[in-house]
Amino acid sequence: MTQFYRPTKAVIDLNAIQQNLQMFKERSGKAEIIAVVKADAYGHGMMEVARKALENGVNWLAVATPDEALLLVEHEIEANILVMGHTPAAFIPVAQRHGISVAAISLDWLLAAGGATDSDLPPLKVHLKVDTGMRRVGVQAEEVSEALQLIKSRLFSFEGLFTHFATADEDRNELFQQQVKTMATVVREINDPSLMIHVSNSAAAIMHPDLAFDAVRIGISLYGIAPSSYVENNMPFTLAPALALETEIVHVKCVKAGEAISYGATYHCEQDEWIATLPIGYADGLLRGLQGQEVLVRGRRMPIVGRICMDQCMIRLPEKMPEGEKVQLIGRQDGAQIRIEEWAGKLETIAYEIPVNLTKRVPRTYC
Ligand SMILES: *Cc1c(COP(=O)(O)O)cnc(C)c1O
C-alpha cells in the first residue's frame, strides 16, 4: 500500500457496510440487493465496497456511467453490473462483450443502441427505465408497448424493468403515490414474470418495504447515511455510518486577544486563545462553508475558526494541547460523534454531497 505521511485520512468501516446490508436484506424479504457503488461508492471506494458486498451475498452492482462499469470489470469484480444512466452507442459492443446490463432510457436510445449492437457478440442486456415522474430519463408509460416492440426486434436480452422516485425521502406525498401507481400499471401491462423489477432507492426501501419487488437499489444508506432528515426521524432500524475523517493537530499556539485568524481576518480572538492548525482544507473536501463547524478532540467539540484554507484550517482549543493530538472531523471519538448529516446541515445541503466531495488527496483506509 502507498504510504501517506500527512495524518489526514478517511477510515472506512467495511463491517458497518456489511451491517447495513444485513438490515436491508431483512427488510426487503426475498428481493435482491443491488449495491449502488457509483461515484466511487459515494466516496467510500468502489472496489473495496463492491468486494465487501459480494462477499455478503450481493449479486448486483449498479453504477451511473459506462466507465464506472468498466472499472469494475477491469478489477475483475464478478457480479451483474447495471449502468443506470445513459450509455452511448460506442459502449454497446463493450457492454455486450462483458455482459454489462444497461438502462434503456428512451425510444431513440433503443433505436440507436439496436443499431450499435454487434451480432457476433451475446445480446445486449437491457433494463427498461420507465419515467413515472422523475422526468430525468426513461420512456413514458404510454411508450412502453413501443419500447417492448423495439426490444423484441433487436439484439437485446430483456432483463429488467425499473423506475426511480423523485420524492421517496419525503413524508407521504402525492407524486410518490402517483409514481407507484403508474409503475404498477406498467408492470401489469408488461406482465412478464421473467423480468427483474426494481423501483426502490434507500429511502423507499426503508419507508416502503412493500415496494421491494425483485430487487432494491441501495446507495446512500448502504454507507450508513440517512437519505433525508424525514427518513432519519422515521428510521425503523439503526444505520451504521461507515466513513470517519481524521487528522492530527500539527501546530499549536496562543493567539493574543484582538488578533485575527486566517484569510480575510474574519475571526478575532476575544481573549488570548489556544489555536491549533489542522492539515486539512477545502482541497480535501473540508468546504469553506464548514467554517464554525465543530471537530472532536479528546471527545470534546471545538470549532473551526477563521476561513478554511485550501490545505489547512484552524480550531480553537479550550486549553493548550500537544501537537500530534488526534482530531476527528467525522465519526466517533471517546463517546462523542459527528455525523455526515451534521455537516450537510451546516452546509445547507444533502448528506449525499459530503462524502463524494472528499477528494482523491484524502487516502481511504479500511477497517
Ligand atoms: C443513485 C441512484 C440510486 C441510489 O439512491 P440512494 O438514494 O442513494 O439509495 C438508485 N437508483 C438510481 C437510478 C440512482 O441513480
UniProtKB/TrEMBL annotation:
Sequence ranges assigned to domain Alanine racemase C-terminal in this UniProt record: 242-367
PTM-bearing positions, type N6-(pyridoxal phosphate)lysine: 38
Alphabetically sorted, this entry's keywords are: Isomerase, Pyridoxal phosphate
The record's EC number reads 5.1.1.1
A GO MF term: alanine racemase activity
Q: Which residues form the active site?
A: 38, 263
The residues listed in the UniProt record as binding substrate, with positions renumbered to this chain, are 136, 310
The reaction(s) annotated as catalysed by this protein in its Swiss-Prot or TrEMBL entry are:
L-alanine = D-alanine
According to the UniProt record, what class of enzyme is this?
isomerase
> Organism's domain of life?
Bacteria
Name the needed cofactors. Answer: pyridoxal 5'-phosphate
Spell out the SMART domains in the cross-references.
Ala_racemase_C
Q: Which SUPFAM superfamilies match?
A: Alanine racemase C-terminal domain-like, PLP-binding barrel
Part of which pathway?
Answer: Amino-acid biosynthesis; D-alanine biosynthesis; D-alanine from L-alanine: step 1/1
One Pfam family matching this protein? Ala_racemase_C
Report the record's Gene Ontology biological process terms. D-alanine biosynthetic process; peptidoglycan biosynthetic process
An example Gene Ontology CC term for this record: cytosol
Q: What does the protein in this record do? A: Catalyzes the interconversion of L-alanine and D-alanine. May also act on other amino acids.
Family from the record? Belongs to the alanine racemase family.
Name of the protein described by the UniProt record? Alanine racemase
What is the species of this protein? Planomicrobium soli
